[in-house]
């Protein structure tokens, strides 16, 4: 068996054990690996929506400023190697296998001492720390997997900046049944005496949790407020179609590469995090901030896979994300007939998403994602029919893609696939089969 096959088989096997939150296991694992995470300079990002986009923007800015930057994100959209990037380049399959097997050996030493096998996410997170240390990264941008306080990434002791993006209901089975409980868990990434940037919450009770946590831990809190972004407007043509421009203080005009009006809030978070690094002594020029944001890319978030017909995928999977996606459609795509392909996981707020999104659709196609947590597409179709008349269930994703492409031929149309990141890889392959994927 090759190293690549061995690493893949190992991850699949331990992945059957599911998720267990807490830091004891990852602390033991990092101890076996020389605690290399303590030798890295880290920017830690938590929140419900926008984490990946903020990580991509911060990483892109730091690269423009000349730093060697590692970025760890989850979950993978298309393949595991995309979770480990150095200056925008994915880890090679060879290096990925080697670092996973190094962590596997450390897990073996733990089990020999009578300790439990770490979870797959703990193994992947430990591998990220080891890889970025081996790659001599000057700065590392680190996204939480789930929550914050008990997330494996929170094994870190002293991040340069802790960033909290928008907070809403998600992962209730693990994080709590109320918004207050979820906010408290995510605020757990705030460290004693730390620098904190947070997207200003709409809910006063969430603000109080962030502010009280910062006060208790003597941390400095700066709110990133979209209200401070002026003259927000959409780019309707060319390479940046669907993306937004806005003005922001001394930076002047900032141009986003990532479409979606919600990316303005994410960009403001990224800018304020960079300002924190500037105050900490890192030399980053305003021109590099603007160029970094303009070049940042993030797969699966209002990503345009082809333009004829316009086919977009988005990972919106909860109420807050659906509201932001709906706002983007209202601001820039009202002149399109919009066809939806929707697949969701059963533990998500699917009914709330449907209520928000379906009024803008001309046609709705539901599918069942390839995931043990998937909601049956037939049940989703029945739910969708409460809010829309033109709903059909497709047994295969490829059938949904063909049906959407056929409908899109009739008039100026846009196809939007959303609801879960779990089926986007399969969707991309279906587009290639239909010879319309042009990226």
Could you outline the blueprint of secondary structure elements for this entry?
Blueprint: H1 3-15, H2 24-32, E1 42-46, H3 51-64, E2 69-72, E3 84-86, E4 89-90, H4 93-112, H5 120-134, E5 139-143, E6 161-164, H6 172-175, H7 179-186, E7 195-199, H8 204-216, E8 220-224, E9 230-234, E10 244-247, E11 253-255, H9 262-279, H10 286-295, E12 303-307, E13 310-313, H11 319-332, E14 337-342, H12 350-357, E15 363-366, H13 377-384, E16 391-393, H14 397-408, E17 413-418, H15 424-433
Structure in words:
The protein is of the alpha/beta class and 439 residues long. It folds into 2 domains: 223 residues, Mur-like, catalytic domain (UDP-N-acetylmuramoyl-L-alanine:D-glutamate ligase, 3-Layer(aba) Sandwich), CATH 3.40.1190.10; 131 residues, Protein-Tyrosine Phosphatase, Chain A (Alpha-Beta Complex). The chain is built from 15 helices and 17 strands. The strands form 3 sheets. It has an 8-stranded mixed sheet, sandwiched between helices. Helix 1 packs across helix 4, helix 3 crosses helix 9 and helix 3 packs across helix 10. The longest helix has 20 residues. It is globular and about 60 Å long. The relative contact order is 0.11.
């Amino acid at each position: 068996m090759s190293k690549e096959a061995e690493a893949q088989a190992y991850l699949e096997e331990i992945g059957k054990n599911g998720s267990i939150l807490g830091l004891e296991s990852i602390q033991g694992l990092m101890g076996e690996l020389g605690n290399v995470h303590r030798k890295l300079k880290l920017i830690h990002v938590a929140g419900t929506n926008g984490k990946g986009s903020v990580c991509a923007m911060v990483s892109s800015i730091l690269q423009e400023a000349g730093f060697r930057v590692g970025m760890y994100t989850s979950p993978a959209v298309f393949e595991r190697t995309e979770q480990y990037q150095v200056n925008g380049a994915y880890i090679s399959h060879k290096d990925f296998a080697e670092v996973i097997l190094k962590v596997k050996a450390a897990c073996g030493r733990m089990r020999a001492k009578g300790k439990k096998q770490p979870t797959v996410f703990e193994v992947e997170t430990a591998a990220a720390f080891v890889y970025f240390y081996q790659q001599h990264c000057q700065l590392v941008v680190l996204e939480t997997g789930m929550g914050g306080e008990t997330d494996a990434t929170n094994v870190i002791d002293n991040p340069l900046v802790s960033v909290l993006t928008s907070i809403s209901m998600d992962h209730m089975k693990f994080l709590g049944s109320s918004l207050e409980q979820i906010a408290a868990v995510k605020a757990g990434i705030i460290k004693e005496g730390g620098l904190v940037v947070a997207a200003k919450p709409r809910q006063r009770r969430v603000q109080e949790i962030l502010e009280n946590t910062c006060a208790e831990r003597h941390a400095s809190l700066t709110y990133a407020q979209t209200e401070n972004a002026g003259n927000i407007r959409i780019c309707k043509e060319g390479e940046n179609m669907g993306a937004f421009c806005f003005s922001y203080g001394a930076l002047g005009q900032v141009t986003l590469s990532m479409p979606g009006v919600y990316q303005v809030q994410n960009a403001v978070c990224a800018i304020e995090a960079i300002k924190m690094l500037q105050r900490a002594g890192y030399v980053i020029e305003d021109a590099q901030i603007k160029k970094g944001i303009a070049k940042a890319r993030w797969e699966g978030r209002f990503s345009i896979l082809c333009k004829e017909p316009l086919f977009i995928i988005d990972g919106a999977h909860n109420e807050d994300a659906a509201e932001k996606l709906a706002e983007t459609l209202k601001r820039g795509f009202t002149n399109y007939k919009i066809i939806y392909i929707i697949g969701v996981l059963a533990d998500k707020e699917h009914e709330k998403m449907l209520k928000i999104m379906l009024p803008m659709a001309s046609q709705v196609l539901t599918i069942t994602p390839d995931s043990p947590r998937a909601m049956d597409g037939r049940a989703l179709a029945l739910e969708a029919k409460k809010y829309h008349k033109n709903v059909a269930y497709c047994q295969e994703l490829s059938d949904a893609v063909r049906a959407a492409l056929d409908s899109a031929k009739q008039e100026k149309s846009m196809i939007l696939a959303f609801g879960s990141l779990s089926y986007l890889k399969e969707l991309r392959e279906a587009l290639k089969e239909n010879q319309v994927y042009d990226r």
